[in-house]
Amino acid sequence: MEVSETSFQSAVLDRSQTVPVVVDFWAEWCGPCRQLGPVLERAVAARAGKVELAKVDVDANPGLARTFKIQGIPAVKAFRDGRVAAEFVGAQPPTAVDEFLDSLLPSEADRLVEQGDEDSLKRAHELEPSRADAAVPLAKILRERGQTDEALTVLARVPGSFAADGLAARIALESAARGGAEPPVPDLREAFAALDAGDHERALDLLLESLPSADGARDDVRRVVVGVLDELGVEHPLARSARRRLASALY
After folding, report:
1. 76: confidence class by pLDDT, cuts 50, 70, 90
2. How high does pLDDT run on average in the chain?
3. Measured between alpha carbons, how far is 249 from 226 in angstroms, rounded to an integer?
């Protein structure tokens, strides 16, 4: 598919929200371009719609060449979710092109996480144990069923995840409350119920309000709050205000 400056937005950027789009920046006078073009076309065709190919003649579309800083051709850029996800410059052998295209496609674990049921999440976790988007929802299912040890085992295999750490802290707080820990942990049942109901604002209010009297449980409450903020995302307005309140409560 030939793409121009006027059709690039819809044919590449918008389309890449649904399927990866590989753009071949080329020119008629370029020998390596004529070499690479058929290799790309065959490889994309072999993937039966899982990836699409667009071709941009840099001579006819100098604006696109400038926008994407094309300094040598052939230049191949793969777009996913409207952004460049991978790229290479120069003619490549078929095996290298195959590897490049396959890197753009969802893995088995990606597909399983998207399905989201317990069996799929378990299999995704087996394939990629440190993957937070499989481990955290799986651990939530296990916790809700009362299998807290199993949930903690799953979460322990996900280093560096605030969401996993926050869920582990919640399990610890709930366990301490059931066991009558001394000093007693704050009663966070209403906060956790709000969290489970999707009322993040109410949950964060209650969690942050509990910090001054949390004593030995302060760090676990902090970890729960940070986990909630991580799931909301840094740009969420609620997360921005809660982050400031958390800093004030702790320091």
Report:
1. very high
2. 92
3. 13
